[in-house]
Amino acid sequence: MRKKHLSAVMLCTATVIGFAGLSATAAQAAPRPDAKADFNGDGYADLAVGVPGATVGGKAKAGYVNVVWGGRSGLGKHGSSTVSQDTAGVPGHAEKGDGFGRTVVPADMNGDGITDIVVGTPDEDSGTMLSAGTVTVLWGSKSGIKGGFTAVNGAYSDSRLGDLLTTGDYDGDKDQDIVLSRKGEETGGVALRPGPFKAGSPSDLKPIASWHFNRPVAVTSADFDADGRDDLAVSYGDGEITGTDVLSHPETGTRPWKEKWGIAEYSNSLAAGDFDGDGTVDLALGNIRPSSESEGDNFCPDTFGGSIALAYGKSGTTLGGPRSCTNQNSPGVGGEDETGDGFGTRLAVGNLDRDGVDELIAGSEYETVGTAKNAGSYWTLASAGTGKPLVGPSRSQNSAGVPGTAEAGDRFGAAVATGDFNGDGYPDTAIGAPGEDSAKGGVWYARTPKDGPNPAQVSLTPGTLGLSGAHKYGSVLGR
């Protein structure tokens, strides 16, 4: 049965944010943000780069995680550290085809005030069980990454645990939990690995939802209903039944998770933020895909190059505000709507100008730039008012101040992330281009200016970072 769409309500008074040439009218300057991905506790955000295709100890595609350290000069000037399953204290062993670092999520998993890294390795074998998957927590410390902890192992072949990951406190017990994807013989689903994460803690998975002949494609977490506990947003597709739901943990462990909001369409990427500055959490759905069961009443009109949908929050509800759609045909959005662009296939959130209203960073790795197919671009999108399409410019490697040249297959925008990497109080952006330099890859660091024009970006490549064995660097960024 088809899900009902969220009904639109009357347009709220516009709150225009101070970004991309717009002036702030309602939002006040936000306090300096904490570094949410600070793996050594020095106050600067760091960047976790998953490199699942990396060669480790001669083992192809064993994979590693590279941490690029932030500092006063931003990314690229303060070194980096590489962690694999051959690193002392990290569970497991580097093996051919493991793909360690397929998913990386920064979160403080033990409550010590220093960010850790949750790593998904869905192709990890366990004894005779092939691609059972594993999820590992790498511990942050004052001296950097120090060892790790196995959160959960797959219980059967092809379960592929951890292809998708998100974290939050869903049950309200003050411990961080992990929601992860898993695969069955004819199903795909998501499950909960509750905290705490320490020796002797139960690692049994608790099912949340599953779909026959289908799979989850995107997840994120936020407190969408303002009850003090995190909720799960999950998008599932590629089967007969598609959709995007917001689910809340039950009051008691014996009840199923409760659906608080849902639509029939699914999305390649999900991100939560306050995009209109009203104090409620909104949900962005990148490259939203129409459902075969939506009977023409789609959340967003189908476009050649894709659309980004926004479901706005409203006090006392879960995403009960207006909705909007943004694509490359929208006024004030750079680029052209072309078949297969995948507009918003990757999303990240940051209040770049600190006016209290979040911006949405949208990557489209398949964007054609000039005649270069799959060269890729990204957009910094800002609110033009609740319920209105977002606005903002696009940037590619042909843009002023961006190192390199847009070339076919670079896939600039295949991963996006934000963080205050130079500690000036303004979140910056990191953009991955795994196809750069014959698929060695790279990450572009863009500092957010306090005022004036955008400064030149910095490219971080395996060569400039002194990395060995890297392949498609920049395909996975922690956010």
TrEMBL record:
InterPro entries: FG-GAP (IPR013517), Int_alpha_beta-p (IPR013519), Integrin_alpha_N (IPR028994)
Domain of life: Bacteria
SUPFAM superfamilies attached to this UniProt entry: Integrin alpha N-terminal domain (SSF69318)
Keyword DNA-binding: no
Record bears the keyword Hydrolase: yes
GO molecular function annotation: hydrolase activity
Keywords: Glycoprotein, Hydrolase, Repeat, Signal
Signal peptide annotation: 1-29
Record region (Disordered): 76-104
Pfam families registered for this protein in UniProt: FG-GAP (PF01839), FG-GAP_3 (PF13517)
PANTHER family in alphabetical order: GLYCOSYLPHOSPHATIDYLINOSITOL PHOSPHOLIPASE D (PTHR23221), PHOSPHATIDYLINOSITOL-GLYCAN-SPECIFIC PHOSPHOLIPASE D (PTHR23221:SF7)
Official protein name in the record: VCBS repeat-containing protein
